[in-house]
């Protein structure tokens, strides 16, 4: 491998970086609130099944393709192609991947900015700066723009630092802090009055909903989004793994951390909602369903924190700090997609690439802020519900059909001590070839 190419310095570093990418707003905000509005444990169950039976194999496709090519998605799809048409389509898929990663970052940075804003607002209010605090927590164009800019700048600084000194170093610092905070917070919230009602909603499935098309479609989107799939993030992270590492194990560890944290976050968010209800906060919408998404995080939880006085300030700081960290370790992985492309394809320096990519994505994000009602929801649906699964479909086709089986097996067998075909190596290529594309296509088609 070329000496200039970045590489993760350690196995732990890779797991923290990849799990850091996977664990984000999707786990701590998206997953629990979607569970709340999609039949509680019924959604959790379908999500778990899809995460292991669909998302994990697609994650393996990305990691293996990336490490094989030691390059970005376009380079990787070209490398396994066997003719010009396959290479052409691969390039197109790669471009859509880079564009989707940028699109995701452009809405993600807005929401992450709110997390930063709410995190700063509580200590500021406690110190008497109530005007600033109110401004930070009130929806408005200038606030949205400023916070988004700050978040994009943070993301850029980490990515410009490089794979080992930027991404890996910060993920290794931030992820353990995030996990400890999450465990402590959920442990505390579970002791409060009302928490058990939330727990029941989370853990008792509404079985009538399990096979609803909408639930399965949403759960698939959530699983793809949560494991950062389709857009080449995991592929590029895979390309930074040393050839000595055993990919199926690393992939399984990352998937387990990701799913584990989503499930754990459910033990925080749903009980917290019912604790809030116990204190008189409205947690149901007019239709009688649970409030979800932005109303939940930015209305229900703040109302809960306010009802708790000082300990509320402390909890709020911990909660929004946790969210900001989770968001940052994900956003750096999104920015790495266009950045690695610019570095590898045009030989740009990393700092220059990080700056230009950040600038373009910031402009896209600003366009969303300025046309919020029209664009925000649309961009989320297009990029996460449709583009990500479709790209996952394409990646399975490349790993399962285009890539020569012997070369694929050689890549997987690289560090198999026995040199034999393991169970994984026997089944996964077939699985990626037939089962994964079929499931994705079926779910997408049914939802149309
Ligand atoms: N997995 C991240 C989350 O759950 C989001 C993400 C999507 C990250 C795509 C990278 C690429 O929040």
UniProtKB/TrEMBL annotation:
<feature type="transmembrane region" description="Helical">
    <location>
        <begin position="353"/>
        <end position="372"/>
    </location>
</feature>
<dbReference type="Pfam" id="PF00209">
    <property type="entry name" value="SNF"/>
</dbReference>
<feature type="transmembrane region" description="Helical">
    <location>
        <begin position="145"/>
        <end position="163"/>
    </location>
</feature>
<feature type="transmembrane region" description="Helical">
    <location>
        <begin position="41"/>
        <end position="59"/>
    </location>
</feature>
<feature type="transmembrane region" description="Helical">
    <location>
        <begin position="92"/>
        <end position="125"/>
    </location>
</feature>
<feature type="transmembrane region" description="Helical">
    <location>
        <begin position="384"/>
        <end position="403"/>
    </location>
</feature>
<feature type="transmembrane region" description="Helical">
    <location>
        <begin position="175"/>
        <end position="195"/>
    </location>
</feature>
<feature type="transmembrane region" description="Helical">
    <location>
        <begin position="12"/>
        <end position="29"/>
    </location>
</feature>
<feature type="transmembrane region" description="Helical">
    <location>
        <begin position="250"/>
        <end position="275"/>
    </location>
</feature>
<feature type="transmembrane region" description="Helical">
    <location>
        <begin position="312"/>
        <end position="333"/>
    </location>
</feature>
<protein>
    <submittedName>
        <fullName>Sodium-dependent transporter</fullName>
    </submittedName>
</protein>
<dbReference type="InterPro" id="IPR037272">
    <property type="entry name" value="SNS_sf"/>
</dbReference>
<keyword id="KW-1133">Transmembrane helix</keyword>
<keyword id="KW-0812">Transmembrane</keyword>
<dbReference type="InterPro" id="IPR000175">
    <property type="entry name" value="Na/ntran_symport"/>
</dbReference>
<keyword id="KW-0813">Transport</keyword>
<keyword id="KW-0472">Membrane</keyword>
<dbReference type="InterPro" id="IPR047218">
    <property type="entry name" value="YocR/YhdH-like"/>
</dbReference>
<feature type="transmembrane region" description="Helical">
    <location>
        <begin position="427"/>
        <end position="445"/>
    </location>
</feature>
<feature type="transmembrane region" description="Helical">
    <location>
        <begin position="215"/>
        <end position="238"/>
    </location>
</feature>
């Amino acid at each position: 491998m070329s000496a200039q190419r970045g590489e993760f310095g350690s196995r732990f570093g890779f797991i923290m970086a990849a799990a850091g990418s996977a664990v984000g707003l999707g786990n701590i905000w998206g997953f629990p609130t979607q569970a709340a509005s999609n039949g509680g444990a019924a959604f959790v169950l379908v999500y778990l099944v899809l995460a292991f039976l669909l998302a994990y194999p697609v994650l393996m496709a990305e990691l293996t393709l990336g490490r094989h090519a030691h390059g970005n998605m376009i380079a990787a799809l070209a490398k396994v192609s066997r003719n010009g048409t396959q290479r052409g389509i691969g390039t197109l898929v790669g471009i859509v991947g880079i564009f989707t990663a940028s699109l995701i970052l452009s809405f993600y940075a807005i929401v992450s900015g709110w997390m930063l804003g709410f995190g700063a607002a509580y200590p500021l209010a406690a110190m008497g700066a109530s005007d600033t605090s109110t401004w930070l927590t009130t929806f408005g164009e200038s606030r949205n723009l400023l916070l988004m800019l700050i978040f994009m700048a943070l993301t850029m600084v980490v990515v410009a630092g490089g794979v080992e000194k930027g991404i890996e170093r910060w993920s290794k610092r931030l992820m353990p802090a995030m996990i400890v905070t999450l465990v402590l917070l959920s442990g505390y919230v579970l002791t409060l009055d009302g928490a058990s009602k939330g727990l029941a909603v989370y853990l008792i499935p509404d079985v009538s909903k399990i096979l609803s098309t909408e639930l399965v479609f949403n759960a698939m989107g959530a699983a793809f989004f949560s494991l950062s799939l389709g857009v080449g993030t995991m592929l590029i992270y895979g390309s930074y793994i040393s050839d000595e590492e055993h990919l199926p194990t690393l992939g399984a560890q990352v998937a387990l951390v990701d799913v584990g944290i989503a499930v754990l976050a459910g033990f925080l968010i749903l009980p917290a909602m019912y604790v809030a209800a116990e204190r008189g906060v409205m947690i149901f919408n007019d239709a009688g369903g649970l409030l979800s998404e932005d109303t939940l995080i930015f209305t229900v939880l703040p109302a809960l924190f306010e009802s708790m006085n000082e300990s509320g300030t402390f909890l709020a700081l911990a909660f929004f700090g946790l969210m900001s960290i989770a968001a940052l370790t994900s956003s750096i992985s999104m920015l790495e997609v266009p950045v690695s492309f610019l570095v590898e394809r045009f030989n740009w320096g990393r700092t220059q690439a990080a700056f230009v990519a950040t600038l373009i994505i910031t402009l896209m994000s600003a366009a969303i802020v300025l046309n919020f009602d029209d664009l925000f929801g649309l961009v989320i649906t297009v990029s996460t519900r449709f583009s990500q699964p479709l790209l996952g479909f394409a990646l399975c086709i490349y790993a399962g059909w285009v890539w020569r089986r012997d070369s694929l097996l050689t890549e997987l067998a690289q560090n198999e001590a026995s040199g034999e075909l393991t169970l994984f190596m026997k089944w996964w290529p077939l699985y990626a070839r037939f089962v994964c594309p079929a499931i994705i296509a079926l779910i997408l088609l049914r939802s149309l």
